[in-house]
Amino acid sequence: MGGDRVMKIANAKALKAALDRALRQVEITDIHTHLYAPCFRELQCWGIDELLTYHYLIAEFFRASDLPYDDFWKLPKRGQADAIWKALFIDHSPLSEACRGVLTALDRLGLDVKKRDLKAYRKYFDGQKVEKQIDRVFEIAGLRDCYMTNDPFDDLERPVWEGGYRADARFKAALRIDPILLGWDKAMPRLKEWGYDVEPEVTDRTAAEVRRFLGTWAKRMDGRYVGVSLPPTFAAPEDSVTGRMLEKAVLPACLELELPLALMVGVKRRVNPGLRMAGDAVGLARIEPVEYLCARYPKNKFMLTMLARENQHGACVAARKFRNLHLFGCWWFVNNPSIIDEIMRERIELLGPLVTPQHSDARILEQVVYKWDHSKKVIGDVLLEKYTDLLGSGWTLDEKELRRDVDGFFGGNFREFLKRRL
Description:
Blueprint: H1 12-25, E1 28-30, H2 48-52, H3 55-64, H4 69-74, H5 77-90, H6 97-108, H7 118-126, H8 130-141, E2 143-147, H9 158-162, E3 171-176, H10 178-182, H11 184-193, H12 204-221, E4 223-230, H13 241-257, E5 261-265, E6 267-268, E7 281-282, H14 288-296, E8 302-306, H15 312-321, E9 325-327, H16 337-351, H17 367-392, H18 399-419
Parallel strand pairs: 1-2, 2-3, 3-4, 4-5, 5-8, 8-9
Antiparallel strand pairs: 6-7
Helix pairs in contact: 1-17, 1-18, 3-5, 6-17, 8-17, 12-13, 15-16, 16-17
């Protein structure tokens, strides 16, 4: 970096220019996605038809169409995409964040959205190879690397890890444990089938075997954290299979493996079964279980994102009280510009720069283009205001410090949290 780049930022114009450069050049670590490394071929989701049939758009489609659920699900994927394109992009203006996101992704990939030519978009994607598309999408989105969501109970994913996995430094693993904490009646027979001596009740022997299972898979995947998506009714402590499994097996395993436990709290599953995966909703959760875990297990690291807008303030206050708690992302239903703006302000005002304000949660490769494009704009606007306030107080700032902070927001803070000793 040249000497002029580390001079003190003297005025509003210089601040905006320096911040724009930092945001444009930062290399992003996307700490929670549902993307997969190239070797997971059967699990790869990419292209225009996947973008259009993403569950966000499916839910919107049924608000604009009287097509019966069963008739929609009987359509092939391209038929579903055709129906969604017509209903949400042609018959109505695509104003929602999910619809706008499809257009942003197409535009950034060099496709002409003004033509509204679905056939041309398909032709483009049909002519691409997924490996090259990953390279291009990561470059456009500014991604350094991302974290997958890896479930050893997935019958398509597990065989790749057991034979055929080829490491790609851009794709890090995160061990997902929802079946163990939320579906033990189904997970237990699978573990027995794989040679683990487990029982329906969470006995000491069962807990030890679950710890052994988690250790085996965390090491096999080189997992960097353990994650679980939880309902708004999540409670701790709790005298239940979930509560006992959490405290007797999962948290001891995380401590031994030196891995954070990522809690994603607030999802209500299948409130409308006819929508299938698009039928999930949001519920208000309690912050007390998170406080209990952080206080009861001070040597464990926890990551937290909450689904309800109303839970964000409590989450910020909890993170002020516990250094073993790291807030991350604007998840799912709060991943909208107006709410990202609000949450970003709240976090900075209560926690300063030591948070990870966003993750993409992308399931479709090209989604990272729009999710980071849109989020960086909102985050940048908030940062500009906050740094302007800081300079207005008489504080001085140079571009090196600004870049340090921006790198922290877009992955550096998370990497430091992983390394931190408690």
